[in-house]
Write a structure and sequence with these properties.
three-stranded antiparallel beta sheet, 4 domains, single chain, extended
Length: 626
Amino acid sequence: MPRPKNTILLALLARNEFNQVICNNGKCSGKALSPHTGNIERHLKLLHPELYTSYIEKKIAAQKKNITTTPTTSNIVKANIQKCEPKKPNIELATIDFFTKSEQQLSLLEDRAFKILVQPAFQTLGIGVNRNSVLELINGCSQKLKAEIIDDLSGNLFSLKIDIATKQDITLMGINLQCIKNRSLHTKSLAIKDLQPNYTGDNIKTVISEVLNEYAVDLNQILAVSTGNDKQVAVAVNELNEELKSSLGIETTFRNKSIKSENDYNNSLEGWLECSETEFIAYKINSILSGTHILQLCMEEIFQNSEVKLKLKKYTAILKELRSQTSLFTYAYEKRLTVDCVPNWVSTYEMLERLYELKDMIIPLSATNNNLHLNDDEWNCVKECVEVYKPVYKATERLQTEQLCYSDLYIIIMDILFELEKLPANRIVKSLIDALNNQKLKLLDIELFNAAIFLDPRIRVCLDAEQKSRAKQYIIALHNRLSSLKGSESFGTEVNESLLVEKTTGEQPTTSSDATTPKSFCEFLQNLDTDTTAPTFSYLETDISMYERQPRLPLNSSVIDFWYYQHNSLSDMAYIILAIQCTEVSMECLSTALQYILSEKHNRLTASNVDHILRVKVNGTFNYEN
């Protein structure tokens, strides 16, 4: 590598036409010098001592400057260490993440090598490497998450999702909620609680009430409770409704309600009763079936057919026979055999699908084993069943993995129906279409589901005039309920009278002193425009009217984004109703909790600590700073 040029020295000299270094100082007058730095310095020292002294001073000054500005190896290492050193909040988050989301054992904190590894990080946090220190961090994070949820729930309507799962001798109940926030759906876990082995509806109701009290939630804030096929949850919801009626005095209010309306009297007793019933329905906790359970009911209806039962029994026997055939594993299809051993239609579908996949292998085997024999019609029946059940199977998978709006359940059912219509007509297809249509009609009879369809601009057109009218009445009544929770006047009442200055019939508008003097030209114009015969509308009714005028959105559009840009009273109602959970995504949280509790990772942990760990595990989001 060439030596760097001495720019200070060369600045005192010059070069001739042959690129030689020359000296023009004093009597030298263009004398050629050797280009070597040492020779030039000797020349200056002997013949130009004053110039040499100045050069040396400049050279020493430049060297000092270079020492202070050029980083040494040790300085570079220190700077890089400081740059790469993680921030304190990141260390705290990583510690909590490690022992909750990552499910690492707290017993690691007792391992000597692990202690040495994490000691610097824990010193940064100012805590010791022990279980109590980590549990304090987790508990603090848990309390923070809980406070955020309490703040979100305060004065709002929301819906719960109840999940129950049993494994070995442990039965857990998960109480979750789904909300729309920051233009997306979020599932939050309020609590995961132990249930008695032979739990009842009263047990479930007691646990739900305790959790609601823990989060400072009133029963009147619960709009709906979604669940699967557990009948005891439905019993608990009925008991909660009775308690809600008693606390609000709904029955007394209903009996004493005046028949008078805003327009003096209702047109008929029937109209008054319908209006009263709508308000009564709005003040209740709705029991909602999950989409997975609705599809399960449709499939169970198919499997109740005696002919289908007989065929399924034969198909199951064939797969069980195959399990005992050692020759099976000499074939290329060396896969695990699925046998229908649980009362769930999904396993039945997987059994039929697997059976048809093994057709080419089973036919040769049936030549020597009559128990494996199926004729062509029976094989065609297996194929038909797989084709018919497949759309429902895919929909079930979607309901178990995706976070969906309540109205998406209608889209899923309609998608299945259109898929089935494409298949060749047969008795199985017709039966399944009838079962799905029956469930669809039952859903549309539910005021809450009907309102969800109305508030989805992609599918609102599917409702007829009567269903739309019911939906609007229900939304207005529900908005009054929300307004009472927030402590404000009902938005279902008339607009403030000060905004609607009436004009006396038969008189011309005037500004004279004998009439009400307008305070401004704007108010004067308002007096001219007022029509006493025109009906008055609430702000919510105006929002509904404007919403109905908007064109239908494409089916692939985001309904959440649509309401995000509306910024009105109706958008608040849409967020509440569309957020009702119809999927089984929250079951994953319960499965994780079961695995954690059944493992040995929580030894010596109190019930309170387990609750904190599970709350952080399910609800925690760890966004590390760069």
